[in-house]
Amino acid sequence: MKIITKKSLGQNFLIDMNILKKIVNLTNIKDQTIIEIGPGTGNLTNLILKNKPKKFLAIEKDKDLALILKKNFKDKLKIINDDILKINEKLLSKDKVIVFGNLPYNISTEILCKWILNLDFKKFWFHCLILMFQKEVADRIISKFNSSKYGRLTILANWKLDVKKIIDIKPTSFNPKPKIDSSLLIFLPKKNFFKIKNPRNLEKITRIFFNHRRKMIKKPFNQLFNGNTEIIKKLDLDMTLRPQNLDFETYYKLACEFENLRS
Questions:
Q1: Which residues, at least 6 apart from 123, have a Cβ–Cβ distance to it below 8 Å?
Q2: What is the per-residue pLDDT across 210-220, written as a single tens digit (0 to 9) for each?
Q3: Could you tell me which CATH number the domain at 199-262 has?
Q4: Would you say the pTM of this structure is higher than 0.90?
């Protein structure tokens, strides 16, 4: 069957063998449960299988590709022909998993945010996430506060996870070639993180603050807290700062204060 890439699914298949080998060597795969998101033509899939995982699930939305993968790999892995955004990732395996994903650029942030907001307090469903993003998105995820790229995605991603960039990847490593560079990131669960009862509150706080990213924080703060001076004093907030000038911990504390006001 001839493979026809679908722009609507953001398909760019990684073909650079050096990069593929670097990806599978990032963690121990042997006897682990593996989930691969968007295996495409199976280039990474093949290398993962050579490392002898205990169990292997591959989630591929494209029906044609899912059929090719089933034909090529037969019973060596389980192919799930579905949309990752519609799947409850925590129900895929009883074991903790290692996730590999060359994520479609058009929904990569949506996938990551869904996973982060669904994380449990005490138990992570994965050992690590090894994910490919558009470089611009990866730079936002790993940015520092007081920088222009620092924003909602940075704060959410770094709440419960340690994030590290592994490598930047040029368009020539893919077929078809994307118009932009990519970056490979690894996410590891943090042992200690700020306790927020409902992650949706952190999502709301950051969304409202960064909707006004070029303005002083006074406006979004008043929108959320009705000018509560006690919180301003408690968190030692300077109302003339802009959203990018507040560090991670301040946003986590703001989410907790927001919860306290509604409890």
A1: none
A2: 998 889 999 99
A3: 1.10.8.100
A4: yes
